[in-house]
Structure formats: structure tokens, C-alpha cells
Amino acid sequence: MAFVGDRLEIDQELVDDKVRRKAMSPSTMNALAGNGCQARFAIEKIVPRDESALTASSIGTVAHSVLEDLYGLPGPERTVFKATEFAAKHVGEVDLSTVNINGFDFAHASESEKAAVRATVQGEVHTAYRGIFDIEDPEAVNVFSTEAKLSDVDIAGVPVVGFIDRVDRINDELRVVDYKTGKQKKSSSIFGDPHGDQLRIYALAGAKLFDQEIENAFVLYTKYSKAQRVAMSAPKLKKTERLFVDTWEELGECSDEATFETTPSGLCAYCPLARICSASKVTDADAVGVPQVEPDAVAVYPNVAEEPVETDESEAEGVLSEPTAEADSVVSEDIHQTGESTMTRWPEDKPWEAEVKGRLNPNSWAAGGIAGVVTNSVQHLNAAGYAVNKKNIRALSSTLVNLIARIESGLAGHDGARWGSGLNSLVRLTMWRLLDHEMPIPFGASAGDWQSWETRLVNASVGIIATTEAIYDDAIKPGGWVLFTSDNGESAEPVAEDETDTEAGAPEEADEEADDTTKTETEDETESGEDEAIDTDVPFDDIDDEAFDESAMFDD
């Protein structure tokens, strides 16, 4: 193996033996789709995995086995006690020699030490599956199939492989269900919808396997007692199918060429190539918790396509010349007096690197995004007649930054703002337009007015971006103007501002009342006959509806 520039080249025989796939699973699609790293995918097929009994993957595997056994029983027998019995059985089959807790050595451990470690593993497994009893009543579920194997089926000509955790029958319809013992992942404009795509693949393949269309799918987050419905509209299914086919073709091409591109991301720390790859974002190799490829096992060569650039001597002198007095004079005296070093060299790095040596990278997308916030603050302060000084700029900038973080986290499901992302850029673009026209900053207003303005701005921004994605995904339907005709009978009068403020509520309140609001949304969708409405017979008590995630942020 060798790195040539930012590409990993692997011996063709090794690729054919370990990396190339005869069929594709949803997990393979998710590993490569979007910003997935080809090099990491390839090396993880070659380097042995850490099979410790206490890794999240191992705990999840045992928890899945418990649920498979549980739902294989007749309804009345699916009790908490039976699940505990199955957990004890499967944990008893676990190889404790892989466990490493405070130097635990299985070969020299006493029976009491082994029993304690086994109890620890069983406790982790119990925690991983226990939430299923909060999500639904297992005794009432009409199970059609468990661990249905996908074989001899294809999606748009691409062979599929995998197992569907559970298929339920509700009246005459089938529903696919997948268990997840990790944290909930919602659809994101940045990270895609890996869990949703997985269930849509299962639905498309399951329809061929069972010779029946599957229109409902749920992800059950059994550790966190959450149920999330998966969008199954025709545009969503088509989009996932296209992603599946494109990823299969991508895998085939890089396997044929035995060359795999690197894509740096926040997941670099979990890659076996972290200490070798030049694109890796890992700075402390000791913190990497996965088996690492030794540096001497992979040769590293510069990119052969890059030729040294010849520079004319006079041009080089021009580049290194001292700045003119005129250029230096544009730096105001106030900046020199801030106590911050502005005259020392400001190191730069690649655009996706937010920092260099603990300092903001001026070449980064993050720097450009934050500079845009500060510039807008200066513009609005000046227009409102406020002093454009450091104190006011920082106060207004921090307010706008907080709003951007709230909007972005509401859409993507992560904490805070990620300034280098495309979603962050879209949030800022939407906010600036609203501030310039529909929702100007309420300078001089009361604290209550400011809080109301923040809520309305967050709601409107999330609503606009969510609608943007919905319009992109859905087919364009003609005749929408009928809502605005005189025949419609709807009043064109605007809603009173005090009514809007009262009903909107803060995002925090919307989160606290999510369960009740979700039930209302579900009933409304069912009555309107929408494609993605939740069946009223679904036994899940705590459903996190994708539709609610978007619509709950709108003002009425």
C-alpha cells in the first residue's frame, strides 16, 4: 500500500480479496456516500477490528440478538423477564478475554472477577435494549418476520445484502423496523439521512423479497426510548435509490483502479490511517482508539501530477517586498491598542481547517462566515445610529451568532454552529435577507420585544430552509395559486402581532411539548391523507416525527 498525494493505492489482489463487494449493504452505502472517505472504507476492510466485548458495536450486537429472540416468541411471552433471560444467555457466550478494564487479565482472573466483568457487560446490554418496553408494548406487536435476509434481490440492478431487524404486519400492510442502540440521527442537509436511507433501502428490497409494497418504516432507538418515523414518499425513495446506485458505481470504479481518495472529516480520529494520512485531522495520535496501521507499512509519495512551479526572480522579489507606507496606514490605531498581536504572522491552512495552532485560520470558511456576521453587525449598528465601537459590535455579533447556532442546531440536530458547513452558509443567507426586509433588528425595544423577535426570526429561518428542502424533494405541483384567489374564501388580512407572539413560543418550549404536539401533527396528517402520515394503529408512544421536526418551528 502507498499514499500518492491524497490517494491511497492498494495492491489489486488485496482489493479484490478484501475491499470489492459482490453486493452492497446500506452500511456500505452510508460509509461512502456524501463526504464518506474511500480510503478509510478500504483500510477498515483490511485491518482487523477491535472485537472487545465492551465496545459499542459488540454491545449493540448482543442487544440485537436479545431482541431477535424476544420477538421470535408468541406475543404474550415477550416480557421483560424473558428479555433478561436471553441477555444472560447471550452474554454468557461472550469471550471475556477481549475485555480490558483496569488491566483485567482473563487468563489470570479469579471467578469472582470474571463474574463481575460479565455482570458489567450484561448491564450494558440491558441498558441498550431496555427502551423497547418504553417505545411499544412487545406483546401487542404483530410480527411478520425477524432478521429477514436480503439475498437474490436488487435495487435498480444493484444487488443488495443485509438483514431487516423486524417486519410487522398492520392490517394488510407491512412495516419495516430497525433497532439502533446508539444516539438518534435525524435528517441533515450536511450529513444526509443515513438511518432514513437504510430503512428506505430495506423497504425497496423488502418489497421484492415479500412481493408486497412497504409504505411504513421506523427506527427504534432502544437505548434512548425513541421511535423515529422514516419519510417514505416517492421522491425520498427515488433519491435514496439514486444514491444507492451512484455509490455502487463509485465503489466499482475505485476498486477497479485500486485507488481510494481521502476525505478529511471529524471521523478521522477513528480511522486506522490517522497517523499516516496527510489529510488526517488527528493531531494527537495517542488519543486514537482504533487499531492503527504502522507508518512503515504504507509508503508515502508526493502527488506525481504536481509539478514544481517556476517563479521568475523579479516576481519573487516583488512578493517578498515590504508593504508600502500607504498600505500600513489603513490599519487604524484602535486595532493596535486592543492588546492583541496583529502584526505577527497569521498562519494559514486549508479552508476546512477552522484553526491553526490554536488560532483562527484566516483562510477558512469559518473565518469568512464569522467575518460576515461582524460586517452585518457594523452595517445594522450604523444604520440604526448606534456607535460603531468594539463593545457594540461584539454585543450584536454575539446575539446574531447565538441565533445562527439555534437555527442550525434545530435543522441538523447537533450543538452549536459549524461555521465551515454549507448549512451554516444557508442559515446566514436566510437570516440576512429577513433582517434586511421582513424582521429588522428591534433596536431600542423592550427585552420582551427582543425575545419575541428572536423567536420569530428562528422560526421563520428554519421554516424557510425546511420548505426549501421540501420543494427540492417533492415534485412541482401546478395550481398552487388557487389558495390566493377570491374563490378560496380565505382572509388576506395578516394575523395580529400579539397573537403570533403568543402562539409561536420559544424553541425550548416546543421541545418540551414535542410529544403532545407530535400527536396533534400526526392526527392532522392522517386526516389530510398525506403520503407520510403515521398509521393511527402504530403502538409507539414516543414517536419523533420528521414532519414535526420541521413544522414545529413555524409561526402559525
Automatic annotation (TrEMBL):
Taxonomic superkingdom: Bacteria
Where are stretches of biased composition, namely Acidic residues? 307-316, 495-515, 522-556
Chain spans, region Disordered: 307-347, 484-556
Report the residue ranges that make up the PD-(D/E)XK endonuclease-like domain in this protein.
Answer: 24-277
Q: List the InterPro entries hit by this protein, alphabetically.
A: PDDEXK-like_dom_sf, PDDEXK_AddAB-type, Restrct_endonuc-II-like
Where would you find the membrane-spanning parts of this chain? Answer: none
**Which positions carry the signal peptide feature in this UniProt record?**
none
Q: List keywords of the entry alphabetically.
A: ATP-binding, DNA damage, DNA repair, Helicase, Hydrolase, Nucleotide-binding
Pfam families linked:
PDDEXK_1
Name of this protein:
PD-(D/E)XK endonuclease-like domain-containing protein
**Record lineage:** Bacteria, Bacillati, Actinomycetota, Actinomycetes, Micrococcales
